[in-house]
Amino acid sequence: MKRTFPLVHRHFLFVVPVLTSLLLMLGSQPTALAQSPHPAIQFDTLTRRIHQIMKQEKTPGVQVLVFTKDSLLYKLNAGVMNLKTKAPVTDQSMFRLGSITKSFVAVSALMLLEKKQLALSEELKKAAPDIQFTNPWEATDPVRIVHLLEHTTGFDDLALKDYAVNVPALSLQKGLDTAAASRHSRWRPGTFMAYCNSGPAVVARIIEKKTGQEFESLVRQRIFEPLGQKTITFRRDGAALTQLVTNYSGGKTPKEERYWDIVERPAGSLNAPALELMPFVQMLLNRGTYKGARLLDASSVDRMETPTASLAAKAGLKEGYGLHNYTTSYKGYVFHGHDGGVNGGLAHYLYNAELNLGLVVLVNSDGAGFGKIDDAVLDVILKNTPKRLPPVYTLTSAEKESLLGYYRASNVRIGLSYWFEWLASIYRVFERDGKLMMTNVLDGEAVPLQPVAANQFIRLEKKGYTPTWALVRNDEGQTVLTNNDFQTMTTTSFIGAWFPLILGGIVMLLAVVSSVAGLVWLIQYGLQKRKRQPISGMPVRMSLWGYSLSLLLFLTTIITGISTDPFTLGLVGAASITIFLTTLLAAVFAIWAFISLVRYQRQIPHRADRIFLWAAVCSALIVIGYMAIWGLVGLRMWA
């Protein structure tokens, strides 16, 4: 639910009645205050850019707000709620907020903290002994509430089978029971951040136990009502029955998505119009107060914004993920907030109290339009704000040496995907013309790193983003580069970085060649059999062909499933059964190809032929061995 999907605007006049067209045009007009406390912001430029992006990316509908702690500066409703009905986006249109819901969990927890009904240091097993989880370090480093809120439990994220659950009436406890298997600490709690959707749901259940009140009811009473949020809802009920937009996946080739009843609602189920999310953000801008009513102490808002439960935070890094509140650094200014994503919908809120600015961006598509609109809003509202970066720190030779080298993605969000990330997510930090640079070795684009302390570095990205990274050491004493947000990388050697990549490229090339060669061998066998000159080593060749086709079908099914509808991979269906069978068959065929080659190699007359077959069969065994290590042989996505 962390952000990870349209008709061109000019076509509306040709496909809908004139009245609807006029409503769309009126609904797309921006609203801005006549007297703005930020007069230098060119809101007309922002409107043009948003419309251009919507047209280019075929984004169906958008709501954008820019505001201060007490006033609205800019409002834009643009596009349609539904591509079939062409109903225009209005102030009342409700969008899915996704993981923004987690911020409401954090505020609820802080409210209990202020009343001394809850402590962030409290152990999970004591606060909710009936919630299942496993932690190999529980005796010395127990999972605490703070770890759940800062995503430092080490828990895996929800499995695809958990994401596939779609039951409206499921209770919070039942939802937690459904997804219990993912709550396993893969590293010592309180060391590294990895996003996990179970954390906020567990905290919400603890809140229910502490208060004796259903979580949704408590939030409505203590947050929604004081903020005047009248239509916001956790379920598809009330105003959401008529005002909720339809979500679309697929970007420029939209596919209508059904409503997703999330198995653990506190992780990302809220629906609301932008104008009802704004008071929540203004409350944070006002350090806990909204229109004179205090929801939180200022110190609680400070705590919400500050990460503490990670090695990076303990090493002095102030940026990153706090209590369901994370940072976005732009031109050196740190914005706090959260984003969210569900099937076919994306959302984001950001605020900076020093600049007295907040923003909300909501779209009913998971295409590229959302990110581009997000970028455009920050670019325009900070266009005339000078960069403000901390002074450059001069590294000693030893400090620089400890940073330079290769890194591999580690401590990842989804354990099941690590087989791919371990292989492909390789980074390098190097020096060029006296400047430190960071690059992903597969895309080659180098981004400058500016040292700001012995163990902290700002990544100077082209679009103006300036996240801070920290250099720490893990329990094994390895150097780890982390931004305390969503990325952690552990040092590796030159050989450790490149050898798996090169070997992986070779084995995949041999698999592709074998898939083509298999068809040629089959044709040759048919032709030569008529001449009573059968091709040699056919059991080897056909087994190798079966392996290569199985492997390529497995990879194709995975890629297609993720790009079209990843939730279906978690159900028993054509895609998941194909994955299960192809991973099994690939292993069987690879082993049989090896046995056959040992048996029939002397019957293969041509040396070059034998060399190719040995190379292809050995590469197949390497692939199957790699798959077995990561638990991919006989993979049951629904289990």
TrEMBL record:
Keywords: Hydrolase, Membrane, Signal, Transmembrane, Transmembrane helix. The chain crosses the membrane at residues 497-523, 544-563, 569-599, 611-633. Pfam families: Beta-lactamase (PF00144). One of its GO terms (molecular function) is hydrolase activity. Residues 47-373 form the Beta-lactamase-related domain. Residues 1-34 form the signal peptide. It comes from Spirosoma arboris. This is Serine hydrolase.
